Amino acid sequence: GAVVSQHPSRVICKSGTSVKIECRSLDFQATTMFWYRQFPKKSLMLMATSNEGSKATYEQGVEKDKFLINHASLTLSTLTVTSAHPEDSSFYICSAAGTSGSNEQFFGPGTRLTVL
Amino acid sequence: AQKITQTQPGMFVQEKEAVTLDCTYDTSDPSYGLFWYKQPSSGEMIFLIYQGSYDQQNATEGRYSLNFQKARKSANLVISASQLGDSAMYFCAMREGIISNFGNEKLTFGTGTRLTIIP
């Protein structure tokens, strides 16, 4: 299957700082990327959908000013958690869909964010 | 109403036995797709199997098969001859609407089932 990478895999930051997470499709063009959040032992909750070159569509209850999503190219989307607080600590996973030749989404390995 | 329901929070199965993980779904859209993913402790989401709403045959992929009962709106995952490496969280997911060839419709996930294989 197609490969999606995420960077960093793990990040620890102080409360009040901003953290950027990158999601890259390595061997296909991702016209659409999705960002999910997963609390421990819980399901994946979709945060937003981003299409290359346009503004992201956020799910209800997700603060767009808090979680900034940029999808400036067909291989890269970024999620920036602004002014992070301990309650933002979570596992963030991206997935990508596009010209891979498959009708499935391909998931990145996830980023574990811990805010102190 | 929940779109995807997984009623088994945890299951313990003896190695080499078959296991069925339950999934029911709720949609009024005639076009939808159902997915199963495996999530080991490392956190990555591993695609296992896919069933489209118009597919006539139940999907199979190696040791994985999907028992698709459209009238009952259920899409249970069957793992044959379970192995220790099958221990993980398993998520059922659905996407609704016109199914493109590009996978760019959003997925809704169930709450998952934690499967533990006992040696």
Distance between the termini of chain A: 36 Å
Rg estimate of chain A, integer Å: 13 Å
Overall geometry of chain B: globular
- One letter per element, helices H and strands E, the order of chain B comes to EEEEEEEEEEEE
Sheet/helix structural class of chain A: mainly beta
Number of strands of chain A: 11
**Major sheet of chain A:** 7 strands, mixed
Mean pLDDT of chain A: 92
User: In oligomeric terms, what are we looking at?
Assistant: heterodimer
User: Helix count of chain A?
Assistant: 0
Count of individual helical segments of chain B = 0
Element pattern of chain A in H and E: EEEEEEEEEEE
Topology:
The complex is a heterodimer of chains A (116) and B (119).
Chain A (H helix, E strand, L loop, with lengths): L3 E4 L2 E4 L5 E7 L4 E9 L5 E8 L5 E2 L8 E7 L2 E6 L8 E9 L7 E2 L3 E5 L1
Chain B lengths: L3 E2 L4 E5 L4 E3 L2 E2 L6 E8 L6 E7 L7 E2 L2 E6 L4 E6 L8 E9 L11 E2 L3 E6 L1
Parallel strand pairs in B: 2-12
Antiparallel strand pairs in B: 1-4, 3-9, 5-6, 5-10, 7-8, 8-9, 10-11, 10-12
Give an overview of the whole structure:
The complex is a heterodimer of chains A (116) and B (119). By secondary structure, chain A is mostly beta strands. Chain A is 0% helix and 54% strand. Chain A contains no helices and eleven strands. Chain A has strands at 4-7, 10-13, 19-25, 30-38, 44-51, 57-58, 67-73, 76-81, 90-98, 106-107, 111-115. In chain A, the strands form two sheets. In chain A, strands 2, 4, 5, 6, 9, 10 and 11 form a seven-stranded mixed β-sheet that branches. A four-stranded antiparallel β-sheet of chain A has the order 1-3-8-7, with no helix packed on it. The model of chain A has no long low-confidence stretch (mean pLDDT 92). By secondary structure, chain B is an all-beta fold. Chain B is built from no helices and twelve strands. In chain B, the strands form three sheets. In chain B, strands 2, 5, 6, 10, 11 and 12 form a six-stranded mixed β-sheet that branches. In chain B, strand 7 and strand 8 (64-69) form a beta hairpin. Chain B is globular. The termini of chain B are far apart. The mean pLDDT of chain B is 93.
